[in-house]
Amino acid sequence: MPWVSAAILSGILESIFAVGALTCWYSHSVTTWAEEALYSALNNGPTADYDPHVLGLTAFVIWCIHPLTWLLASFFVEGLARIVAAISIEQLLPMWILAFADWCYGQFTHRPPEGDALHTPGGREQLRSFIRAAKQAAKTARLTELPDELTESADGRDSILEIHSSHAKNEWTPPGVVRVGSVYYRLESLAEGRRPRPFIYRLRRLSAGVPGRNVILYQSPVGPDSAATQREHS
User: Fold this and answer.
1) 161 secondary structure, DSSP code
2) Burial classification of residue 147, based on how many CB atoms lie within 10 Å of its CB (0-12 exposed, 13-18 middle, 19 or more buried)
3) pTM of the predicted structure, to 2 decimals
4) What are phi and psi of 174, to 5 degrees?
5) Cα(90)–Cα(88) distance, rounded to whole angstroms?
6) Are 214 and 231 a contacting pair, CB within 8 Å?
7) 93 and 174 part of one domain
8) 149-155: strand order across its sheet
9) How far is Cα 79 from Cα 88, in angstroms, rounded to an integer?
10) pLDDT tens for residues 177-201?
């Protein structure tokens, strides 16, 4: 089953149907409300003293804040998000209403987590991750991208390499393994430094390589460009 293509097609259909439903809902609701207000005005009702244009604008505002309008708009936005996720990173996102129904069923039947749910962080962890990402984005928003600064020192018999970077390296999480040239290091810790290079990565040199594990390839900065990283699958 080509799940990525199916997700793209499903997102397109969801967005199209949402736009069609919004159009029908707008045509029915605004026309009906404006018509009722106009008839009331013609019969000297409560709206007799209002301008017909104001009545039409009022009907449109009511349509915008109506719960059904927000529900249909959520399907349109969700369809676009599912299309982008499937095209960009090949991630398959479910419709929120189906995911919510599945969650309710799991809670009602006390179903144990399975599949991807086993590795999905809880709400608190996701909130903490979001806050950390927001703080990190705020910290680096006005920083100019600069080449990394590397300092090497000795810790007993081991060699310690510190990389001071102006921007965060998202894939660098301890205890990952980093290859600098032909030398392997283990990423021990992350620390906060001073601007303009507030991210400090402390690495300990390894005596040998680490075959069979994911290794981050790090290119030492040469010239004005910043260091580049990529992932090697051994």
Assistant:
1) E
2) middle
3) 0.46
4) -60, 145
5) 6
6) yes
7) no
8) 149-155, 158-165, 199-205, 183-192, 177-180, 214-219, 228-233
9) 14
10) 888 888 888 888 888 878 788 889 9
